[in-house]
Each structure stands twice: as structure tokens, then as C-alpha cells.
Amino acid sequence: MDNTRERWDALDKSDQERILDKHRDINVDYDWWDDVYADFVMDMQAIGIQVDTRTVRTHKGRTYEEPNISFSGFWSQGDGAAFAGRMYYADIAARMEKKPEMKEMQARYTADLDCHMGWHVRSNNSMSFDYGYDLPEPDDDAPALRQIAQRQVRDEFDKVMEVFMKELEEEVKGHANQLYKNLEKEYEYQTSDEAVLETLFANDMIEEELNELESA
């Protein structure tokens, strides 16, 4: 190994660059993004966002689950990362508790409120974010003034919820953008001279390249 390293170090820079460029994609010809995905899923779980999974079928007919994440990159306009996910009511309620205006609204409907949401994000350029919540309808048998008051409370809740969801949208979009940056950083490292050379040495491929070069 030491002799191989010495022979490598003695090569002209042009020969080193040619060998490295020949194997530039050696670290990215498999699912190199798995660790980035795993870290992202854990980070999202920590803040109450559950990343969905999708079923993948292998060529042998077996299936397994993987995070529902996709990306394109890294140097074209429109490149970005996308993921599908959701939040459950317990996590939404925990966020509401931190906002006085939401806490007050929530207290009126704790027994009847049912919230659900999901989204699909792709960079900063486009975003679909679906959510819903169910509130009790005004009581048709109640006096007219009572019904008016109930509708006013519902309208008030809708306005507060709209602000809350817009803030959450921005947060989710930020996570998708950070995911893309992390993927780009990992890709740049895996295709760097340092990483490629390390892999070539680890797999005894430098020796083969040197022998081929010296016999030419």
C-alpha cells in the first residue's frame, strides 16, 4: 500500500486527474443518498412531521419501504427536493399550545376538532399543501343570536388557522430546501477528489490503474 501511495504521489497531476475523472461517479452509482434521507426522516420526526413511505419492488419481486423523497440536481433551474409527509393532531395541538390565539381557539373546540394535513414540496418554486379540520356546525335548533355567535367563532377560527397554516407551510418549505442542500453537499463530497481517491485505494483499484499506465 505504501509503495502504491508513493507511485500515486509521483504521478503527473494530469495523470492523476485523468484517473480520478475516469472514476468520478464510483461513489454515486448506488443509493448514496440513504444516510441523508435517514437523517432527514429523524429530524422531521423530532418536530412532529412524519415523512411518508412508499413501496419499492426489487427485480426479484421482493418489496421494501423507503422514505417518500425524491430530488433532481444539482445544477439546473428547477432542481430541488420533494417529500410527502403529514402531521397528526397531537403534534398540531402541541404547536397550537405555543400560540395564545390558537390556544384560545383550540380550547373552544377541543372535544370536536379534528385536524389533518399533508403536503408535497419541491424546492421554493412550487408547493402543494393540503390540510383540513372539522368543526361542529352551528346548532340549527339554537336561537338565532346563538347561531350567529357560533358562526362568528367559526369564522374567527378559520382566520387564525389560516395564519397558522401559512407559517407551517413556510417551515415545511424550508425543510425541503435544506434537504436539497444536504443532498447537494453529500453529492459534492462523494464525487470529490478526496472521496474518489479513498474509494480507489480501499478497493485496490489504484494499483490496477498504475500498472495499466506504466505498461502503456
Task: Describe what this molecule looks like in 3D.
- This protein has a domain at 28-33 and 87-190.
- 55% of the residues lie in helices and 19% in strands.
- It has helices at 2-10, 13-22, 34-46, 89-97, 100-109, 144-190, 193-202, 205-215; strands at 50-51, 53-57, 63-67, 69-72, 80-87, 114-122, 126-134.
- Strands 1, 4, 5, 6 and 7 form a five-stranded antiparallel beta sheet that branches. Strands 2-3 form a two-stranded antiparallel sheet.
- Helix 3 (34-46) runs antiparallel to helix 6 (144-190) and helix 5 crosses helix 6 (144-190).
- It starts with a helix and ends with a helix.
- The mean pLDDT is 84.
Could you outline the blueprint of secondary structure elements for this entry?
Elements: H1 2-10, H2 13-22, H3 34-46, E1 50-51, E2 53-57, E3 63-67, E4 69-72, E5 80-87, H4 89-97, H5 100-109, E6 114-122, E7 126-134, H6 144-190, H7 193-202, H8 205-215
Antiparallel strand pairs: 1-5, 2-3, 4-5, 5-6, 6-7
Largest sheet: 5 strands, antiparallel
| Order of H and E elements | HHHEEEEEHHEEHHH
User: Are there runs of 5+ residues with pLDDT below 50, and where?
Assistant: none
- SS strand fraction: 15-25%
Strands, count? 7
Task: Output the structural class.
Answer: alpha+beta
Number of distinct helices: 8
Overall helicity: 55-70%
Please give the alpha-carbon distance between the first and last residues.
22 Å
The mean pLDDT is 84
Rounded radius of gyration (Å):
27 Å
Overall shape: it is: elongated
